[in-house]
Amino acid sequence: MIKLQENSTQQNQSPIPDGPREPEWLQTIWGILRPIDYLETMHRRYGDIFLTPKFAGLPPQLVTSNPQAIQQIFTTDPQQFICGSGNRLIQPLVGDNSLILLDGDRHLKQRKLLMPPFHGERMQAYGKLISEIAHQVIGRLKMGETFIARSLMQEISLNVILRSVFGLQEGELYQQIQEVLTAMLNSFDSPISAALLFLKPLQVDLGSWSPWGNFLRQREKLDQLLYQEIHRRQTQLDHLGEDILSLLLTVRDEQGQPMTDVELRDELMTMLFAGHETTATALAWALYWIHYIPEVKDKLLTELNSIDITNVDPMEIARLPYLSAICSETLRIYPIAFFPLARITQAPMELIGYHIPAGTILAPCIYLTHHRPDIYPEPNRFRPERFLERQFSPYEYLPFGGGNRRCLGMAFALFEMKVVLATVLSEYSFTLTQKRPLKPVRRGITFVPSGGVHLSVVDS
Which of 24-28, 85-89, 267-271 has the highest mean pLDDT? Predict the structure, then answer.
């Protein structure tokens, strides 16, 4: 195991513990199947910073929930880190050319290219679309009907992506992409099936009946649909719309070359995966907490009733303080991902006074940071007011990661959450079918509410 060395100028500091001594295989299973128990156990043992052994074939990871260390990681020159190889777990989902797996100048150029659609006027234009989709999907529910919130929110968020990213209207291709993508992502819908992403020996194609074989065939179907749409749109460059695919088809590099079909496919897959799974889960959690704590629901409805949702500018919805606080607290208490994108040190470096060897993964832990009682008193209590009482630094509150790797779609995701919640809760009333505590369970690399949140439609 790599030994962390104390900086010679700070000999009076306590040495950082090596971290867990359990066998690598045991820690891998523990971390996949019971991640909260694993993280909280290690934090109790070793404190704010500890080193884990190799995990799922990755280098040793320095896990930290120390805001000072997180600030240093997020503000250090990105050239000191390699990120692509530290995030290879998701390569089967997004492809080699995904922004997530790029480094250096190529990452910087691609990030600048993809940023405009998620901010400013373009994002504002999507507000009405988001509200219309939410109204359309939720409007199918009947009085007394019970539904799974996460499934319904997944349908809304996927429709938003298909309309805003692909510019698709409902039709055969729209339906096919919806069905195939859902089937593909469902390959990892439990902690056990999620092990496919973490354990390379399980990634064996034994035919369509085998877990990995089924995933590969679903991915191949989706690839065919994406390339079909890319080729169709390439023949219509004079009649492109305002969607993100249209924008990507028109960009050129310094040599005047367009993005290749494979590059386009990988970025579209990244947005499909990162842009709808995560938002759907966050919405399901928000609906759970709103209906689990009556006073939260009452305060929110009072705020929503103060404006005319059907005629208001969506940007005004996004500025509602208590709605914003609910969204922030939802992403604090159970973040969708427990770690931001990994950074691997290319050379030895100091971190809050300690010498970190080259080849170490720096892993700020979002979950542990968000549960520090010194920053968030009563951290296990859902309390939106904490976000009205003070502002947290980006090293204390980091649901979208940070630094040059902060989620590109952060503003869009929060905007979508607020518009969907305001639309749905202004028109319909729900109740939890079972008022019991819910805990996160692993779904691939993300964490979703166990059971998906069961709600019933009731009279308002």
Answer: 267-271
Strands 343-345 and 81-82: antiparallel
Domain assignments of the chain as residue spans, ordered by start:
5-458
**Tens-digit pLDDT profile for residues 1-19:** 444 444 444 444 444 557 7
CA–CA gap between residue 240 and residue 237 (Å, rounded):
6
What is the CA angle 311-316-321, rounded to 5?
130
Helix axes 278-292, 410-427, angle to 10 degrees: 40
Question: Which CA distances in Å does 112 have to 36, 107, 258, 261, 408?
Answer: 35, 9, 15, 19, 10
3-state secondary structure of 119: coil
- CATH number, span 5-458: 1.10.630.10
Question: Which tens digit of pLDDT belongs to each residue from 185-225?
Answer: 888 877 778 778 878 888 888 888 888 999 999 999 999 99
Spatial distance between the Cα atoms of 221 and 219, rounded to a whole number of angstroms: 5
Residues 403-436 as b/e (b if ≥16 CB within 10 A, e otherwise) read bbbbbbbebbbbbbbbbbbbbbbbebebebeeee
Residues 418, 127 contacting (CB under 8 angstroms): no
